[in-house]
Amino acid sequence: MKKTTQAFTLIELLIVISIVGILATVLISNLLAARNRAISTATQAYVLDVVTGVETQRDTVTGALPIIAPSCTAASGNPGLPASVKTGTCQVIFGTTNKDFFVVNATTRNGTDYTYDGTAMKFGTSTAP
């Protein structure tokens, strides 16, 4: 009696490997896109947190902004920048005339600039590599 063994042929193995490769490519590109969206959303939330921090320091009687421009971390009340914000890019800028307005700028790790100018969140083009 002859024993037969069942095995995959080389063609079957190549087909399975190519299908796994295609699936990995699709999944990785989707994961990278989701990661970039998460970084952008976290940076926008941080900018709005800084705006809230500056507004809480506004004089309730006169409506004047603070004399000294707080840093982003001081205004938000957080000890440090979130991982989504590129180090050294978040800043609070007050108007030059009687400091009646302010702008908050921050850049994400992937290079998109976000600015809150007192009316709306605006984003610029990518400036990172």
How would the blueprint of this fold be written?
Layout: H1 10-56, H2 72-76, E1 91-94, E2 102-107, E3 112-116, E4 121-126
Antiparallel strand pairs: 1-2, 2-3, 3-4
In short:
The chain has 129 residues and is of the alpha+beta class. The protein is 40% helix and 16% strand.
CATH architectural label: 2-Layer Sandwich
Percent helix among the residues? 40-55%
Separation, N- and C-terminal Cα atoms: 68 Å
Number of contiguous helices: 2
Q: Into which percentage range does the β-strand content fall?
A: 15-25%
Main traits of this protein?
membrane, rod-shaped, cell outer membrane, 129 residues, disordered C terminus, alpha+beta, Pantoate--beta-alanine Ligase, Chain: A,domain 2
Describe this structure in words.
Strand 2 (102-107) and strand 3 form a beta hairpin. This protein has a 4-stranded antiparallel beta sheet, with helices on one face. The protein is α+β, with helices and mostly antiparallel strands. The protein starts with 9 loop residues before the first helix and ends with a strand. The protein has 2 helices and 4 strands, in the order H-H-E-E-E-E. Residues 125-129 have low confidence and may be disordered. 40% of the residues lie in helices and 16% in strands. The longest helix has 47 residues, at 10-56. It has helices at 10-56, 72-76; strands spanning 91-94, 102-107, 112-116, 121-126. The chain has a single domain (11-126), classed as Pantoate--beta-alanine Ligase, Chain: A,domain 2 (2-Layer Sandwich).
